[in-house]
Design brief:
heterodimer; A: mainly beta; eight-stranded antiparallel beta barrel; globular; B: mainly alpha; 2 strands; 62% helix; 3% strand
Chain lengths: 193, 182
């Protein structure tokens, strides 16, 4: 009856959730599950539609203290060559020198510096490195959910989006005024280690 | 032999062979130039999409013509090379000719592999779609694209050798070799 074995951990999870059990609340480390995590992008096409794409190869981890937002951190790395906009020839162009220049800059990373919780909103501050340029960024993140999974593990998932200006990262190929900025999306699920 | 003008004889290639040679020479060299041009157009150029679409369409067409040309070439004796030519020159000419055929095959083949890497077919002049027979393979567009470029450069080098040799025979050896194909 393995089903019932989850009951205590579920109770623990609920307790951790509410933050009401500081006795065993402590730092938790999570490894990002790349099969349930997505780094996406959205950019206007001529200002008439929103093109969606993603980076298929990503990796990362996060840690948090179940008691407080402070001290939490996250780091994510994507393989820039894994860009997928659902069109091979466009992706070839995007991997080239005019855009991501993946031979020179094979990775893009985000490393948080500080995570603050204020009036119910969680803001992640950190550094985004893209196309070899590192810039400070901040974006709002929210937890989608967390708890035990059916296979004996414990997971948490978050989502957040960030607007960036391509030119800030030295990717200024002219795609028109509506496409100077773009949105990056981070949809992650971590498995507690 | 019923139609002596269509077939190649001892002195001259036939009409069909000459037509294929010169027609494909013009179109293929045009394709190399057009390919470079199309690949470097900017996003706002009116031909940004069309230039590459024409290149793909013409590639499919030229591949069909190549198949016909190879069948035609194998089906008859080409006009022989002049007897006084040293054996090594004859061998070099043969190697260059078949290397040119190989390039003519690889150029559309690698182009097709690039265009169908995501499993979509190739639209031919808006009239017909050549299906994507190869399984989709993300990443193939990159290395096949590099190969496409490398073969195009090799093709130009071979054409240069081919033309230089023809001129050498025409102007220096004066053995009438150029007239066989004219």
């Amino acid at each position: 009856m393995s089903k019932f074995r989850f009951a205590p951990s579920m109770a623990l999870a609920c307790a951790l959730w509410a933050g009401s059990s500081p006795a065993w609340a402590a730092e938790e480390k999570y490894k990002i599950d790349p099969t349930h995590s997505f780094v996406t992008f959205s950019i206007a096409h001529l200002g008439y539609s929103l093109l969606q794409g993603r980076f298929d190869t990503m990796d990362g981890s996060f840690s948090l203290d179940t008691d407080k937002a402070e001290g939490a951190s996250i780091q994510v790395t994507v393989a820039t060559a894994s860009i997928n906009s659902n069109h091979a020839e466009r992706d070839k162009h995007l991997r080239g020198k005019e855009f991501l220049d993946v031979d020179k800059f094979p990775q893009a990373t985000f490393q948080s510096k500080r995570i603050v919780e204020q009036s119910g909103k969680t803001t992640v501050e950190g550094e985004l490195t893209l196309h070899g340029v590192t810039k400070p960024v901040a974006f709002e993140a929210k937890m989608i959910g967390g708890g035990p999974d059916p296979w004996g593990g414990f997971r948490r998932g978050y989502a957040g989006t960030l607007r960036i200006k391509r030119a800030d990262y030295g990717v200024s190929y002219n795609l028109g005024p509506a496409s100077e900025e773009m949105e990056l999306g981070l949809y992650i699920e971590g498995i507690r280690q | 032999m019923t139609d002596l003008r269509a077939a190649s004889d001892k002195f001259r290639f036939g009409k069909v062979a000459r037509g294929l040679h010169w027609g494909m020479a013009v179109l293929l060299l045009g394709m190399v130039g057009w390919g470079f041009y199309a690949a470097h157009l900017n996003f706002y150029d009116p031909l940004y999409h069309r230039a590459l679409s024409w290149h793909r369409s013409m590639g499919v067409l030229l591949f069909g013509v190549l198949l016909f040309r190879i069948v035609w070439r194998l089906g008859q004796q080409p006009a022989p090379l002049p007897d006084p030519m040293p054996i090594w020159e004859k061998q070099a000419a043969h190697v260059t000719h078949w290397a040119l055929y190989l390039c003519m095959f690889l150029l559309p083949a690698t182009g097709y592999a690039v265009s169908t890497a995501d499993g979509r077919g190739v639209n031919v002049f808006g009239l017909w779609e050549l299906p994507a027979w190869l399984p989709p393979d993300r990443g193939r567009e990159t290395w096949m694209g590099t190969l496409h470029l490398a073969v195009a450069i090799l093709f130009c080098l071979l054409v240069f050798m081919h033309v230089a040799a023809a001129f050498k025979h025409h102007f220096i050896n004066r053995d009438g070799i150029l007239r066989r194909m004219w």
